[in-house]
Each structure stands twice: as structure tokens, then as C-alpha cells.
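Re: the multi-chain job from yesterday

Posting the exact lines I submitted so nobody has to dig through the queue logs.
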Amino acid sequence: MHVTSRANLPGRHPDRLLPAEPERRGIARELYEQVAGLPIISPHGHVPAALLAEDRPFNNPAELFITPDHYVTRLLHAHGVPLAELGVGAEPLAEAQARQAWRVLCEQWARFAGTPMKYWLEDVLPNVFEVEQLPSASNAETLYDHIDERLGDPAYRPRALLESFNIETLATTDDPLSDLAHHATLRRDASFGTDVIPTLRIEAYIDPAHASWPGNVSALLEATGRDDTFASYLAAIADRRAYFSRHGAVSIDCALIDADTAVLHPEQLAALYERARAGEATAAEAKLFRAGMVTEIARQSQRDGLVITLHVGSLRDYDRTLYEQFGPDRGCDIPLTTGFAEGLRPLLGELGEDPGLRLVLFTLDESAWAREIAPLAGFYPGVYVGAPWWFLDEPEAILRYRSAVTAIVGFGKQSGFIDDTRALCSIPSRHDMARRLDCAFLSQLVVEHRLSKGEAASVIRELTYELPRSTFKLTGSGNRPGGLPIDHPKPKQ
Amino acid sequence: MHVTSRANLPGRHPDRLLPAEPERRGIARELYEQVAGLPIISPHGHVPAALLAEDRPFNNPAELFITPDHYVTRLLHAHGVPLAELGVGAEPLAEAQARQAWRVLCEQWARFAGTPMKYWLEDVLPNVFEVEQLPSASNAETLYDHIDERLGDPAYRPRALLESFNIETLATTDDPLSDLAHHATLRRDASFGTDVIPTLRIEAYIDPAHASWPGNVSALLEATGRDDTFASYLAAIADRRAYFSRHGAVSIDCALIDADTAVLHPEQLAALYERARAGEATAAEAKLFRAGMVTEIARQSQRDGLVITLHVGSLRDYDRTLYEQFGPDRGCDIPLTTGFAEGLRPLLGELGEDPGLRLVLFTLDESAWAREIAPLAGFYPGVYVGAPWWFLDEPEAILRYRSAVTAIVGFGKQSGFIDDTRALCSIPSRHDMARRLDCAFLSQLVVEHRLSKGEAASVIRELTYELPRSTFKLTGSGNRPGGLPIDHPKPKQ
Amino acid sequence: MHVTSRANLPGRHPDRLLPAEPERRGIARELYEQVAGLPIISPHGHVPAALLAEDRPFNNPAELFITPDHYVTRLLHAHGVPLAELGVGAEPLAEAQARQAWRVLCEQWARFAGTPMKYWLEDVLPNVFEVEQLPSASNAETLYDHIDERLGDPAYRPRALLESFNIETLATTDDPLSDLAHHATLRRDASFGTDVIPTLRIEAYIDPAHASWPGNVSALLEATGRDDTFASYLAAIADRRAYFSRHGAVSIDCALIDADTAVLHPEQLAALYERARAGEATAAEAKLFRAGMVTEIARQSQRDGLVITLHVGSLRDYDRTLYEQFGPDRGCDIPLTTGFAEGLRPLLGELGEDPGLRLVLFTLDESAWAREIAPLAGFYPGVYVGAPWWFLDEPEAILRYRSAVTAIVGFGKQSGFIDDTRALCSIPSRHDMARRLDCAFLSQLVVEHRLSKGEAASVIRELTYELPRSTFKLTGSGNRPGGLPIDHPKPKQ
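And the result, C-alpha cells for all chains:
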């Protein structure tokens, strides 16, 4: 009976996101069946390693689904709900607070019509939490109790959830000075089947415009026992990269306002470093130093092989008042017009042909996909087109992305899907969404006789499993046999 | 027989603009039936109030369909027809002139294939004017006579037309110094069911780069009995806003080349004012003053609650020669790359969380929809995504708009459809077009199981009726009972 | 048997690229049948006139399909294949080299999934070369031998191929100092049915930032017997234009980084010329001179009527190292954000209403289509929207182009399809692709009742045949009877 009821929920419908036209739908279905059960590769994201290492039960539905998810909090805020009312920044929440936040979400559920947040949650609630109704003002308390009860069950602890999601590799994002103890803890758990690997996030250590740059550099030099010279600074970064590599990292992440790079004389870069350290660098000098450092980071990748993910063009923490009150990553990033061609030219002129370089480019200005990113990835062996990100990680934009870049680079220079999320429970839903959309896209190529069914079957497997692995040099098989077709998502019994 | 013949016209087909795929078409039809008869809310447009107040018969078909419609005249001009040959700027036209203009339109009808101008006129001609043929060189005279005859019928006077269109609210755009006598005249007509409200158009009073700024400010100060100080200037603007509010205005319109705003010290702004008044402001100073004034306008909205519509990024009257010959708004606006994030940051940093702020953002650079406008509206309670405008007010762009913004903001932070037209007869056609396209868009979400039919039914009603009302704070019901499903368009018997 | 086998190849499927939905597919098929056999008009492209004049057999499959085609070489390079391994820059290739290049292409064939290169080659191989298999690692040698054998057949010489493709007019692109002897040779061949016309490519003669500008100008002055003054320089350009016109040219091509134009006082322009000739012009002066010269080129078109094609916004030869090693046009152009409105305003303010001006605008930044190019072409009689080009010459982008510009300009101010290719064998495939996509686009307008079937039939014929002819003033009928529906492509017996 419950099963019947759940079967009517949109998140249970086998054809969700597949195209309506019957011929295309049939082809898309066939393709989807071939990859639905493949393990998830998540080479870039923001689930905190501590969450998995500590493996404590989630406190309550609000701290699972609302407060850490800036996709959700920003839209509620846009409809006039103060962030404080949602418990943002007040974690851990008292039960009354958590219930209030959950109630607001349920009451405002209709606001999410047409958004991926609705799609993901309507997938997660029935498929992971056995919820049998869509959220609404009238069932808010019932759903809260239902989910809250599940959260007390060991099967709903973070590590157990991750395992049930069939995630082969999950990358976290980490401060360069992290000791990565949580990752070590996870590796020691022989029964835990997901390979959780760190990622070194660098921008706050190379951009003097970052408020924390002076303190970060001092801490970096101290942690690596280096003196305050430019050579030591570079070596200290290399030290931490080596440390991350030894702990399984395959990539370094860099989020910047633009894609500027520069090839500077070492002495010039050193002089800029000294001025920035002395707090005397002008804005232009700070910018030039940062541009030069992006090239240095790429040079270090020539040597240690770390993939560089470049996330460009977002005015982060746009609202300074809210930033000061609630801290970063509360949903108020506003993208800008973003170019890549001119900014990357110095770096690519120097290192573009080097087999050690691997640069995955992400934008929030989708006009750059076909205009700059795909032409760059369609020429340089080391450049890849990063998957749609943040505001663009949704069905319509994902299809626009495929449409914009595929003709220029084919599939093999696209990164494969990247969830980039801190919302743990949404990971399988996001990857499943991407697989369905890729099947939808491929079904069009098949019905238009641009791809045979056999070719489409190869491509969908490549996009789902091989590409994210090869793009991020995930050559190992992790802790589990890779590629086994395991059912996904695994409904709890 | 006539009815049969008209039924074959494209403008009579019940499924026009609905998707071809049968499952989607069925859903779209069902949705459309639910909103086809809802009253029209037109919270921003350019029908002159005088036209309705004076309620004189239209002079002839050319002055109804051609000379005032820069959508039509610009495309004929692009095909080599001189504006003078169409009677532009020569109104009132002698009959020979009017016939000539109409003949040109009919002869060139094939040039409009694929454009919304064709779609609108092919809707209006049979549905409002009982025309039974599409325009062509051979029937130009017949159609002219047919329409001209109708124009002599009282049922085709402006006010009667508006009523037959089932328009609940119609906003005009007015000079701040207008006495709004025409609006008063209309309110006195108890039998007239449309609520015609004024809108204060501000840019020529706050932008010293505007040729008419010096004269406008002098006139403003004189009209409000104020002396020439910055404080008086601000107060004079507030006076006119209050006057407009008392006469039913709910919004203030501002059309600028960019979205720059600034938060300046009052003394700095006053000094810039004085320099501008003295004709001594540099271009940069004039620009900074304008940016500061946008913030002042928003501060005034905190107090009086007027919604601000910001139309940004159009190089108006691009062709100076034609501008000097024919005046403004002849179709030669050319859009520019347009950003919003950096420009609006000062204003939003100051007022973004204020419940009194309401800012509806319009762009002609559609890359800004998903990149900047939707992220802003998806965070700030007071920011809304304005509907596609001018060149983008057409089926393909409207669907691209829904696709670009819905995932980011849902439906509730979109403005609802805005016709923004001076072509009175096209109003029902434009709104009907928007309703059909929204049904088409929603039908896709339904067949992909992203929205239930019930949810889609709520959304289509919200988009059609509630949203334009709530976005523009149209809380009253106007002069007629709101929301009654009245048949649209009402064919004359 | 072979025929059966070929019928299963994607390049033989009658419905390729047509929409899946049955109603639309039926309409698209009907439309396609009406234009499939029309002669090809190719008013802008890069097939070398020498190739046709000399009419030597192609050396081998690699020099036909790989080394001259930067669409193919750039993507192989992006997958790590060094350009040298493909024989780029080493022509004529020894047989072993040619076989190696071909083998690489076959081995990497899967990399082309989703690209137009795959589509074109899968059309050309069976339809022109009677190949019965798709390329793969296992059949590389067999296919090489098969094609190589055909290349020895007189029917596969360049001129014979061109004739079999039913090309009515083919424009080449030529250095202004070319004697156009090859074109004369072709005109003397009474049995050759294609009208091969030259195009004058101007940018390296008007842009002092071009490395070859000083030498080019000296050569130009010398060739025309002029002294080194600005007046002579202008006259020398006019001389060459006249020479090209007498040899059949209808257009002049200009590829620039931006669309800047300027209206300068003749003395100012002359002074800039002198500084540039003396090697003393600053970058800003060189840019201003170039902007002024674009206006001069347009002024000359007022007099001689040559159409100007403006290709804007590509950072050419982005990778300097490869440029120095392999020369220009190796696939490493990277587009930039591109505006047209502000840049063209001076020129259009001066000449916009002149009936002699004809400017066809091409961009690689597709956001400019609806934002700037279509609004310009939708107002100015002399401005046309150029077809999608380079990275955008592919099915998805072509449909996005139609969607972006049609509502704004209708069909009559679009240029018609332009192949812009140096890959001779792909010409019929590219035009056939464009015809199919146009039918697909029109079928949507028909099913949505925005265009009748009859109107769509007129439009498809206009787009295919009349528009490219009228846009480029190809008023003559060439050497063959124009407009005859000849089967295309003609399979060899």
C-alpha cells in the first residue's frame, strides 16, 4: 500500500526527465537502464570530511535539508523569510527552532515549483526516507517526525547513507593546512566502501585581495617551517600539495573572480609578493600577483599532476551585511560576465602543450561555454569543459550546456557530471538527474541519425563513469570493485 | 460561411503556439482553458491616456496599425521602405497617405514571416476586426475599407475596444509633470470597466546626460514651487510621486543605459547636482550623479512604496539623423551587453533587505537572465525578474526566458507577463500569446514529472493573474470584479 | 547489396536531422523535398582557386580530409595527437605519413560523436566516395585504399567533384594583390558549370596591428604604381576592388577583432596613416586608424557596390608557439565577447541609410545575435545577419540562430546559409545540413500555426536559393541555368 502510494510520487516515476516524444522516450529509457546502476563518481564537492569521519546522526531534518543548503535558504529568503528564521547560523538548533524551519519549508513548498531543489527533494524524500507525501503546510509536523525518527536509525548515519548511495569516490574540499585526519579515519574503516579523497582549495592563499590572505600565508609558512620569502612561500604550497597527494587528492580547486593569468619574471613576482606581504600592494598589483600565481599553481601541476578546477566569475558574498551576520556561502553569490580567452592566454601560451597540465573550466556565465571554454577545450589537450555549476546545475541549463559544447568538443573533453554539493542526501538524486538528462540529449542525436544506438550506449557510459574518472585521473578502483551495476537508489527495506 | 472561413485563419486556430507532441499538447490545452478567459492585467505599457480619455475614433487603419508601432515600421524600414512613405511623423494622415502606408504593409506581408508582428496581427484582424483574409498585395484596398468601416463604429472606439478586451488594469507611462487629467476623466466614467493608472517615468529628470534634463528640472522646480537646491529637487520629485500615487500609480519607470547605482554622501550628491545644474558636470560626474539618484529614487520607494521598473541596456535613438527627423521611439534602439550585479551592488547593499524596496529588472541582453537577474531575484526579497521586453517579447525568447530563470527563482519571483506596448489592439493578442507559451512551458514540466497537473494549474493561474497584480502591488480589484472568467477575446457579433 | 548496406549508414538516412515528432517530421520532409535538389550558392568560403584551376587529383585521403581541415585537426589535437603526427604543415605527405594520419582519424573516430565533423564525413564518405562502413581502427587501411583508388579517377578531380555537387556559384577568398589568373582559367573552361568568383580579403591591408601590414601596403602601392601617401593608398585599394569587381567579385571580406568604426576627418586619418607607415603609431592610434579605414571601406562600397562581410571577435592564432610552427588557421581561434552596437554606430550614423551599403555581420559570440545584430539588421536596410560560422556552424547552433534572430528580422534579412569552408568535399553536406535544419525549424512554426505550409514552402526556397543570391547581389545566373532542380548529391554509378 505504501509502495503503491510512493509509486505515484513524482520522485518514483521511472520516466521523470525523459522526453515526451515516444520514440525519443523509448531510446532514452534504454540508455538510462544501462547506467542507472553504475556507481557514482563525485570528483568535486563540499560534503565536510568531518561529517563522515565523526559519523554522528544528523541532528534533525532542518540541519539535514535546510540550514546547510544555500539553494534552499536563498529562495526562501527571496520570498521574505529571514535567514535567522530558518536557523541559519544558529546550529545546532533546538527542536523548536528546527521544527519552525521545517514548517517554513513545507509551507513554502509551492515556491519551489520549477526548481531543481523541488526535483531533488521529491527524489530524496520517498527514495531515501520513505516519505509518502509531498511537503505541505498540513503535513509539516508529520513529515518532520517521520524523518526525525529515521535519523535515529544507524542506517541513516552519514557513512551508511553514503554507502547506500553507491558512491565509489567522493572528493571533499579542504583548507590547505588541514591535517586530513578525517580522511585517514575513513580510510581505516575497512568496511566503508566509498573512497573519500581531499581537494586542496587554494584561492585564499594566492589572492592578496582575500581578507584572510595575510593570516593564511603566515599560517602556511609556520605550518611548513618556512621563512617569509617568495621562494619559501612557493615551496610551502608545494609541500601542502604533496601532503594532499599522499592522502589521495587528485585535484586543486581555485575559485576566482576572473580567469586572469600572467607569466611574470620570478623577480617581479617575488617583488609583488613582498609588497603584498607588507600590505603595500595596490589593487592592480594584488591582481597581477594573483594572475602570476595561477600560472605558478599550473607549473606545480606540471610536476605533481594535480588537476586544477577553476571556478570563475562569481561575486561571492555579494551582500556584505548578511555576510557579516551569517558568514560565507549563504546563497548570495551573483555571477558576472566572464571571459576566459584573454585571461588564460598567458598561461596556455606557456603550458598549453604540456602533458602535465589539466585545467577544468567552470563558469556561471553560460555564454562562455560555446564562445570560449569549448573552443579552448577543443584545442588544448589539457583543457576540459567543466559541468554546469551552482545556478546552472538544473535540467534546462544542463541540456543547454550539452547543446552548447558537444558540437565543438564532442563528449570526451567534457568533465562528466560534477555535483559540487554540500547537501549529502542530494548526491544520488543529482547524479541520477544528470544521467536522465544525458539520455534525453542522446536520444535526440539518435532519432536524428547523428548517433547510432550503439554509439549512444558507449557515450552514456563514458559520460557517467569513465569521463569523471579519467578527467580527474581517478585511475585506482577505490575501495570497491568499480563499475559494478548496483541498483540505485537502494530503497531501505 | 464567413465563420468557416475565419476558422481556417491561423489567428483562429485553438492550438496555436501549443506544442506539437500530442501528450504535451493535451496538457497545454487543459491548462490554457483554465486561464484563457481571465482578465488582463497590464501593469506597464505605453498606451497614451489621452487616447482613452478623448476616446475619438481611430483615424484610419494606418494610424491604428502602422505609424505608432515601431515593431512594424522598423522592419519595413529594414527592407528599404522610407519611414516617410509609411506616414511616420506625418499624422494625422490624409486618406491617400494612409492607404499608401497600408498598401505597403500588405505588399510586404511576407517579410513578417516568423515574427511576432505577424502573429499578433493575424490574431487581431480576424478576432477583433472580423477580417477573413491574410493581408496581401491583392486585398490591400479591400482590407483597408473593411477596417476603416469598422473604425467608424462606436464599438471600435478606444474605450470600447479596451473593454471588449477584458482588461482589468492598464498602466500608462507619463511625464512626472503630467496633471493626469486624462486618468481622472477615465475614473469619472462609471461605465468604463478598466482601471487605467498612471506610471511616473523618471529618467529624464535624474540623468544629466539627457538632453532635456536642464529644462525638465527647471520645470519640475517651478511646477512644485521649489527653489533650485538639491534638497528641493529631491522634495519636488517626492511631491510628484505623491501626486501620482494619489492618482492610482503603483510604479515608477526608469530606462537607463546601465544599472549603475551609488551610495553617496548627501553633500557629495548635492555638489554634483550643483555642477550639473551649472552645466559644468563632466560626463563621469553626470554618470555618478545619475547612479546616486537611482539610489535616491529607491530610498523614496522605501517611504511611498512605489515599485521601480528598471529597463536597462538599450542604446536609444541609435540613429541620430532619423531621431532628428522623426523623434524618439521609431524602432532604432540597439541593445548592449548588460550587467546588473556590479551596478546594483551599492543600492542593494544599502536597501536590499528593506521590505519597502521592490525592483523589477528588465534586460535586452538575455544572457543576463540566468547570470545576474535571476540570482539577484533568487536572493533579495525586493528584486523581481521582469518579463521579456521589446525584441525579446516573442514566442522563442519567452520560452528561453522561462527556461533561463525558472530553475533559479521558481515562478513566484517572475513579474508575470508585461506587454509594454503602445499598440492598443495587440494587447489581448500579446497576453494570449504569453498564456499559451506558459502553458506550453508547463506542459513540458508535467510530462517530465517535474510538476503535477494540479501544480501546473496553480502556476498558470498565478502567472496570468496573481503575479502581475502582486508584483505591482495591485491590491485593489479595480472597477470591476476581478478574476471572473470572461470570454476572451470577445468577437463582435 | 552494397546499396542496401549503404542505406543503413546514417549519412544515407532520408530523415537525418529532421525532428522526431511525427507531425513535424512529415512537414519537414515535404519542405525538404522541395529544396533538396536546388543548386548550391556558396557566396563566401575558402576553397583555393588554384585547387580548381590546376585541377590535379588529390594526393591522398589525408590531404583531402585531414590536413587542410582545422575542424578535424583541432579536435584530434585536443585529444593529445600532435599536429605533426597528422601531417599538418608537411604537405605533400609521403604515403606512410598520409596513411598514419588517416589511421589516427579512424582510431579516434568515436571522439567525434556529437560533432558536425562526424555528420559531414558520414555524409561524404558514402555519398561521394561510396564508402560502406563508418571509420574505425579495424577498417582504416581498407578505407584508405578505397578512397585513394577513387582519387585516381578523373571523376574525383576537384572540378569534377564541384560539378557533381551542383554548385552554381562558389566564392573564394583572395589576397587583394592576386592576379586572379586561376579564376580566369576557370572561366575559360566552357564545360565547367560552376561560377567561381573571387573575394577580396582586406584586413591585413587596413589594420596596422597586423604583422604583415607594412609589407602589404608597400606591395599594394607598388603593384598599383602609386606613391606612399594616404590618398594614393585609398586609391590603390579602390584600384584592386575595381580589378576584383571586373573579375566577378561581389564582396569584400574583413575579419577583425572588434567591430569598431570611426568617422574621422580626412586629415586626421592621413596623419594616422603616416604615423603607422613610419612605424610610430601607438596601439591606440593603430586601432583608431583601423576603425577609420572600416568606414572608408564602406564608403568605397557606396561607390562600387561590393558587399562587406564583417567577421568579428575571434582571437586568431591564439597559440603563438603553434602559429610559429604551423602557420595560421590551424583551429586555434578563440572567440571573445563581442559587441556591434557601439562599434558600428559611427559608420551607420554616416552611411546607414545609403542604398549602396551592404554589411553582413558575423559573430562567434552568439549572445550578439538577438542582442545587437538582429536589431541592427531589423532597422538598417543595408545590414544583414550573417549565418552561424566556425564553431557555430553545426545543427544545435544553427537552430539557436534561427530561434534568436527570426522573430526580430524575419527571414529576409538573414544572409542564407554560408559554408565558409576550405573542405571542398563537405560543401554539399554542409548545405544539405542547413536545408534540413531550416525545414526542421519551419516545421515547428507550421505545427504551431505561426506559418502556413504554403508560406513555409516560400521561405525554405528563399532561404536556400534566393537569399544568398540577393544578399550577395548575385544577379547573374552564372554559367549554368540557375534554379534547376538537379538531384543532390549525385551518387557516382
